[in-house]
Structures are given as structure tokens and as C-alpha cells.
């Protein structure tokens, strides 16, 4: 990861200079960051940090992984390891991803450190001494088997809200209806670890009295939101919290993995992650320099800029400032907050928990360079509303904006300079006397001067997307300038004018590389190498470098020898786009399963090829051809079952049977089949609508309470029979496609003979595995989009 400071030791505030402390929301350590996370915090903050350094400000950029709390404990349980091992694993993954994205932290740390404990406990003691904390009793679920209070995410049960009744709702939120919950509200709660029923017990906790801090907080918000030009979404979210009324907030939890509370009565508890995580900015800075207080307790000389997604706003505009104000110390409070909305993926949402979207560790496998990823994410930065990532849009921006506009301009100019002196300038920047009186050049200079001023104004206000757009407009102007002057003709007819145009254009190349360095540092480094310049980027007022934009012909000296021009961007073609869309369809689990299925198919195909050769040799010896077997004599294998991807288009209760549903299922080719299923006691009616399902289509139709069922929906059941879940194909599977079992090829029977008990024979080996994948023995139910799965039942029979 690049050292953003580029100095011998830690940077400290310098009197008389702009000292800017930059943070981005600490990414949670229990998963791999996706592109939405990256643009939402670390990349946006990196652009601003690079801009500050470009302008000569004394800036540091602090970030790290947020490591304490329930989610880490839960992930550790899932992966059968300790919370520390989870944190070590994912901290390394995050660091590797941000390294690849050229994120220039001055310090990328973590919150599970002794420094975090020291700073966090010191702040707590100040709040305790100043009487901003109170004690209260809460009711929480306690597991007698595990002998501990259960955190929200360690409890699952049925949603209590009428009309929902989702049976796998978490203790903090129901994923189906989206409503926030308390664990004690769940119906039939179960401990996620041991599956036993917990009981309600009283437990004492500590609370911060936000209502008592309201006056101090509102004064800070009123003044700073204006002075710091807070983004509108941050102001709206903060005002909503104030309008709804501040309440006391619990700051402790009954966990082991966290900062211990330094109080005798509460020594078995840790601090709530919302309280402890923002303090991570401070502790990570203390790992950067022992003189951290010169940054964090120096509001007269330090400006604090914070970057995050919209879901983090209240913790930074209400919670953390209240904590700082409550200590009574002279903290550096946030001046400016830059907030992004959500970046969606194609037609859906990025999701870490579900593995949907392009993740940080995926991008390296695309062969699309980092500067393209950074450019696309930043042009698509969701500053005022949600935006969407799409492969076609990335292709359009790469080919149309980076390749045809920016890359074309730079390459035209440098390639012409590099031509031999008989047709160019022999790689040497020409002298250009008279540029001040060349009309088209003066007109260009005026436009560029104005655009650079707009760029600086936008970047100072942290309008990053506008800043990038403005820099790219200078490239547009450069292309128009070359076309208007027709320099290739000038070279033959008016060499002095051609020298003016080429030297001016070369200066523009240099300027554009400077302006784009915060956005695409690898691009700017490559341009400087081709210009044969040291990799030092600066656009300082003190050195008069901004003023040079009004005289682009003076930016590069005459007689300077450039390096070797090379194309800067490569076209992204339709075939590649389609490959990426298919590769990243579905969830990460789907992709892994697709890869596993493909490997399995390859192995089986090799085996079949070998068997076919043997069979052919045997056949040639006998002088005859193998005869096709009639259905009655065929071996009983999964190839005989006609299992298809279907979609329930309508489901309703059976008019004459309380335990049965009647479904209308699209099984492809315009065919709708009526299916009767005994699922009423297991799956709510609303959850049956529009579901993708696996349908066994060649069973003999059977009448069930006067309605003929023409197929069977496949489902898995728990070992005790208390829970049933549908076997679901990936969302991107094609309706009507056949579900296959690699290694068992052949056409299905038109209709299974009930007397032969074919399905019954095979069904004994149908089950879900530990990864929730539906299988026949060890072979997964496979579609073109990946394998078929259930929601939560592992090692359960499928019928």
C-alpha cells in the first residue's frame, strides 16, 4: 500500500499551513469489500487526499479495519476459528485489495490493538467523570447451554410482524420484510450456535445520555454543517435524528470480543461497536505517531474531513461528536463530511452477505487496469442519488471517454513529437516564440484557465465527480485545438505555428496528467514516464503552478527530450463484456459452484472419452454397433429424471385441503403446469409467489383432492421434519432448462413408470450438503448459471 506521506517520518501539523486530517469509514473486517464499499469510502477519500497533496497541503489519510463486535464473532463461528484469526485473515484481504486500487493511506491500521483499548477507555473515563453516562437494566436473551447472553445476530426465530412470519429472522432485523427487531420480540427464538431456546434475563448496561448533550451537539451541527459545506444527504439524515428526538444509547454489550469496560461492575462486558469504531480513527493515528494529539486535539490548526456511505452518517454527525463533546476536551471535530448513496450492481444491489456483485478481489482477474476501474467508479460516484454499475456502461466509458478522448489526445501529441525530424520533432519539445499572439492558442489558454479554476473550486468543495468531469473537458479542448489547427498541415506549410501548437499541446498533456493524478495515479505516472519527467505531481498556488494553466506553452521547456510514446488504453470488446457478465452473474457462492461443476464436468468428460474409446474398440472387434436400450431396460440413473428450472407464476390454497397449495408453474416453452404441494405448514403463501424452483416433470399425473398435479416441486426437509425449504436454482438460470447431473448424461424418460419405482430408488440419495447445495450423492443439481441450493438446511433429504 503506497505511503501517502512520502516523507521520512510521520507528518505532524505545521503552523501556518493547511493541515488536513482525512478519514474514511473503517470497513468491517468480516468480508471482502465490493465495489460499492470501495467507492463509498476508501476510494473517495483517497482522491481527496491525493488532491490535497497535489495542492501542497499538509494532509494525512487514516483508515483501517473495524474488527470488534458481533459480526466478527458470528463469522468466526461460521468458519470454526477464533475472532482474531478472522480479523487477521480479512485485514490482509482488505489490505491487498486497497493496494491493488492504489489507495494512498498514510496509515492503514486496525481496531483490535492495545492503542484502541487505551484511547477508548480514556474517553469512557472522561464521560463517566463528567456524568454523561447512566446505568439501566435491559432484558436480553440468555442461552443456558452456551452460558452467555446472545447478541442480536446470534438469535434467529420467526418474525413477529403480521403477514410476514419469516422463520429465519435475525435478532436485529427481518431480512424478508426489512423491519428492525429486538431479539426478545422474535417468536420461537433459537440460539444460532446450539439451536436451543434461550430465555429472557435481566442484564445491566451503560448508556450515553444524548438528550443531555443535545444543546452542545446542535450548536456544533448548526455552525459546522454550513462552514464545512456538508453534503445534503448528510444534513438530511442528521436533521431527521434531531427531529425524532435524541435518546439515551447503550454503549456496552455482553460479548468477549471487544474493548473491555474499565469498571468493576461491567468488567465482563465490552463497548458496543458503534461507540468503539469511530474512536478507531484516533487509535490508528496513535499507531502512526505518538504525537497523535497534535492532530486530534488541535481544532485551531487541523481540519477533519470524513468520507463514508449514507448508512454511517448518524455515527459521525451525532454519536461520535457527542462522545467528543462529552469528554470536555479540546477535540478536533469533523469539519466536512462527504457522503455517498448506494452503488447498485446491474439490475440489483451489491451485497456482501449474499455475495452479489463485483468484489475487490475479483477485479484483478478481469485484465482491466486499475486506472479504468478507478475512473469508472468515480464517474459513477453516487453523490446525490443511487447509481448503477453495469458492464456495458463501463465499456462505453472506457472506449468512448478514456480511449477515444483522453488516450487519443495524449498519444497524438507525443507520437507526433517522437517522429523523426523529417516528419516530426525527433522527440524534442520545440521552442514556440509568438504563442501569446496566436489566436487559437490564446482562446485555448483562456478556456483552460477557466476550467482549472472550476476544477479547483469543485475539489475544494469535495465535489469529486465534478472535478473529474472538468479535468476531462480539458482533454476535449485539447482534441478540438489539434483539429482546429490541423497541425499535420501546419508542419508542412507553417512550421513556426506548428511548433506553437505542439508545444502548447504538450504542456496540456502535462497539465491533464497533474489534474487526473488524484483520480488515476497509474495513468498520470505513465504519462510522466512518456514525457520523461520525474514522478512528482504538484499544482501549488505557492509555486505559481496553477497560474501556468493560463500559459500552457510555458509548462514544458523547449529542447526537453520526451520518452517513448505508448497507447494508454485498450479497447474493451463486446465478447469480453459478455464474458464478464456471465462470469460475475449470481452470487460468489454460485460462481464457485459453477467453477466446481465445470471442473467436475471436464473430469467426467475425460473419463467418458476414455470409456468411449474402449467401447469403440470393443464394438469394432464384435463387428456390431451398440443397440439403444428400451426405457424399461435402462439403468436407473439421474439421467432418466426430467427435472427443469421452473417459476411459480401463481400459488393459492387448495380449496379442499388445508395443508396443500396449488401452484401454476412455468416450465419453459410456454408450458404451464398445475402442481399440488403439501407446503402450507412450512412456507407462507406470499413466499411461494414468483419463486424459482426445481420441478420434476415426468412423474405420472396424480389427482389430489380433485385437482390433478402434473409435476412435483423439489424441497429439502430438516432431519426432524420441522422445517422444509424449496430447492432453488440461481436467479439467472433459464426457465425451462434441464437441471443436469454431470456424469449422468442421456435423455429423460417421457414418463416414469410408477411400477418401476425409478424416482423412489434415486430419491434415497438426494440430499443437501454442508454448503446447502442440492445433490445426488456428491453430484450437484447443476444449471447453466450454477448449482441449486436451499436457504439454511444442510444434510437434509430432498424430495
UniProtKB/TrEMBL annotation:
* Biased composition annotated in UniProt, kind: Low complexity: 617-626
Q: Which gene encodes it?
A: LOC104772977
Task: Tell me the Pfam families matching this sequence.
Answer: Anticodon_3, tRNA-synt_1g, tRNA_bind
User: Source organism's superkingdom?
Assistant: Eukaryota
Keyword Acyltransferase part of the UniProt annotation: no
User: Which reactions fall under this protein's catalytic activity?
Assistant: tRNA(Met) + L-methionine + ATP = L-methionyl-tRNA(Met) + AMP + diphosphate
**Span list, region Disordered:** 601-634
Q: Where is the TRNA-binding domain?
A: 637-740
Q: Which intervals of the chain form a coiled coil?
A: none
Cellular localisation:
Cytoplasm
Among InterPro entries, the record links this protein to: aa-tRNA-synth_I_CS (IPR001412), Anticodon_Met (IPR041872), Met-tRNA_ligase_1 (IPR023458), Met-tRNA_synth (IPR014758), Methionyl/Leucyl_tRNA_Synth (IPR015413), MetRS_core (IPR033911), MetRS_Zn (IPR029038), NA-bd_OB-fold (IPR012340)
MF GO annotations: ligase activity
Q: Which family does it belong to?
A: Belongs to the class-I aminoacyl-tRNA synthetase family.
Enzyme class comes to ligase
PROSITE patterns from the entry? AA_TRNA_LIGASE_I (PS00178), TRBD (PS50886)
Query: What is the name of the protein in this document?
Result: methionine--tRNA ligase
Q: Which UniProt keywords apply?
A: Aminoacyl-tRNA synthetase, ATP-binding, Cytoplasm, Ligase, Nucleotide-binding, Protein biosynthesis, RNA-binding, tRNA-binding
What's the EC number here?
6.1.1.10
Amino acid at each position: 500500500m503506497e505511503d501517502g506521506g512520502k516523507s521520512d517520518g510521520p507528518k505532524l501539523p505545521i503552523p501556518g499551513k493547511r493541515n488536513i486530517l482525512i478519514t474514511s469509514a473503517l470497513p468491517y473486517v468480516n468480508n471482502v469489500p465490493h465495489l460499492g464499499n470501495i467507492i463509498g469510502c476508501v476510494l473517495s477519500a483517497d482522491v481527496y487526499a491525493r488532491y490535497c497533496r497535489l495542492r501542497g497541503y499538509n494532509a494525512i489519510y487514516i483508515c483501517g479495519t473495524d474488527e470488534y463486535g458481533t459480526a466478527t464473532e458470528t463469522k468466526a463461528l461460521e468458519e470454526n476459528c477464533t475472532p482474531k484469526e478472522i480479523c487477521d485473515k480479512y485485514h490482509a484481504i482488505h489490505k491487498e485489495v486497497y493496494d491493488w486500487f492504489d489507495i494512498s493511506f498514510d496509515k492503514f491500521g486496525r481496531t483490535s490493538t492495545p492503542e484502541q483499548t487505551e484511547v477508548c477507555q480514556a474517553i469512557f473515563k472522561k464521560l463517566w467523570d463528567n456524568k454523561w453516562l447512566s446505568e439501566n437494566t435491559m432484558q436480553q436473551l440468555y442461552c443456558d447451554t452456551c452460558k452467555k447472553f446472545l447478541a442480536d445476530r446470534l438469535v434467529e426465530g420467526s418474525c413477529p410482524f403480521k403477514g410476514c412470519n419469516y422463520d429465519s429472522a435475525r435478532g436485529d432485523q427481518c431480512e424478508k420484510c426489512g423491519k428492525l427487531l429486538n431479539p426478545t420480540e422474535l417468536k420461537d427464538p433459537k440460539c444460532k450456535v446450539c439451536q436451543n431456546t434461550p430465555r429472557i434475563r435481566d442484564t445491566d448496561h451503560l448508556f450515553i445520555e444524548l438528550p443531555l448533550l443535545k444543546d452542545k451537539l446542535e450548536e456544533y451541527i448548526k455552525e459546522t454543517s454550513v462552514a464545512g459545506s456538508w453534503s445534503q444527504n448528510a444534513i438530511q439524515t442528521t436533521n431527521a435524528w434531531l427531529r425524532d428526538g435524541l435518546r439515551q444509547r447503550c454503549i456496552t454489550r455482553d460479548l468477549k470480543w471487544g474493548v473491555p469496560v474499565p469498571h468493576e461492575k461491567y468488567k465482563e462486558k465490552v463497548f458496543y461497536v458503534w461507540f468503539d469504531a469511530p474512536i478507531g480513527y484516533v487509535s490508528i493515528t496513535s499507531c502512526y505517531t505518538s504525537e497523535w494529539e497534535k492532530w486530534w486535539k488541535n481544532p485551531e490548526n487541523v481540519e477533519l474531513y470524513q468520507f463514508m456511505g449514507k448508512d454511517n452518517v448518524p455515527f459521525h454527525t451525532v454519536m461520535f461528536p457527542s462522545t467528543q463533546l462529552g469528554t470536555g476536551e479540546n477535540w478536533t471535530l469533523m469539519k466536512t463530511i462527504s457522503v455517498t448513496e448506494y452503488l447498485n450492481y446491474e439490475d440489483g444491489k451489491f451485497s456482501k452477505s449474499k455475495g452479489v456483485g463485483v468484489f475487490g478481489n475479483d477485479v484483478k482477474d478481469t485484465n482491466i487496469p486499475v486506472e479504468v476501474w478507478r475512473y469508472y467508479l468515480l464517474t459513477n460516484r453516487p453523490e446525490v442519488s443511487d447509481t448503477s454499475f453495469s458492464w456495458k456502461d463501463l465499456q462505453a466509458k472506457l472506449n468512448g471517454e478514456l480511449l477515444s478522448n483522453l488516450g487519443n489526445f495524449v498519444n497524438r501529441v507525443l507520437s507526433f513529437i517522437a517522429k523523426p525530424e523529417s516528419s516530426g520533432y525527433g522527440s524534442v519539445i520545440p521552442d514556440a516564440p509568438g504563442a501569446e499572439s496566436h489566436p487559437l492558442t490564446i482562446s485555448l489558454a483562456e478556456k483552460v484557465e477557466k476550467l482549472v479554476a472550476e476544477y479547483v473550486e469543485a475539489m475544494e468543495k469535495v465535489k469529486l465527480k465534478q472535478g473529474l468531469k472538468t479535468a476531462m473537458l480539458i482533454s476535449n479542448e485539447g482534441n478540438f485545438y489539434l483539429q482546429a489547427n490541423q497541425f499535420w498541415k501546419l508542419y508542412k506549410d507553417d512550421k513556426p505555428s506548428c511548433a506553437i501548437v505542439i508545444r502548447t499541446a504538450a504542456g496540456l498533456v502535462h497539465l491533464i496528467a497533474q489534474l487526473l493524478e488524484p483520480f488515476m495515479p497509474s495513468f498520470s505516472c505513465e504519462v510522466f514516464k512518456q514525457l520523461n519527467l520525474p514522478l512528482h505531481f504538484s499544482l501549488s498556488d505557492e509555486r505559481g503552478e496553477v497560474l501556468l494553466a493560463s500559459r500552457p506553452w510555458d509548462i514544458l521547456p523547449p529542447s526537453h527530450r520526451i520518452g517513448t510514446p505508448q497507447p494508454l488504453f485498450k479497447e474493451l470488446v463486446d465478447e469480453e463484456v459478455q464474458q464478464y457478465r456471465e462470469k460475475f452473474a449470481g452470487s460468489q457462492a454460485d460462481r464457485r459452484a459453477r467453477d466446481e461443476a465445470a471442473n467436475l464436468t471436464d473430469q467426467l468428460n475425460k473419463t467418458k472419452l476414455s470409456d468411449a474409446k474402449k467401447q469403440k474398440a470393443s464394438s469394432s472387434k464384435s463387428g456390431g454397433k451398440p443397440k439403444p436400450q428400451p426405457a424399461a431396460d435402462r439403468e436407473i440413473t439421474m439421467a432418466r429424471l426430467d427435472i427443469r428450472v421452473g417459476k411459480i407464476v401463481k400459488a393459492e390454497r387448495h380449496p379442499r385441503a388445508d395443508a396443500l397449495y396449488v401452484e401454476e408453474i412455468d416450465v419453459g416453452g410456454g408450458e404451464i403446469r398445475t402442481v399440488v404441494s403439501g407446503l402450507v405448514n412450512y412456507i407462507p403463501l406470499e413466499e411461494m409467489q414468483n419463486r424459482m424452483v426445481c420441478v420434476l416433470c415426468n412423474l405420472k399425473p396424480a389427482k389430489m383432492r380433485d385437482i390433478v398435479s402434473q409435476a412435483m416441486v423439489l424441497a429439502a426437509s430438516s432431519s426432524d421434519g420441522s422445517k422444509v425449504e424449496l430447492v432453488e436454482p440461481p436467479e439467472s438460470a433459464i426457465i425451462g432448462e434441464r437441471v443436469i447431473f454431470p456424469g449422468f448424461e442421456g435423455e429423460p424418460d417421457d414418463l416414469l413408470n410408477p411400477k418401476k419405482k425409478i424416482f423412489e430408488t434415486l430419491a434415497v440419495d438426494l440430499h443437501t450438503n454442508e454448503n446447502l447445495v442440492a445433490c445426488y450423492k456428491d453430484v450437484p443439481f447443476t444449471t447453466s448459471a450454477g448449482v441449486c441450493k436451499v436457504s439454511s438446511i444442510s444434510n437434509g433429504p430432498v424430495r
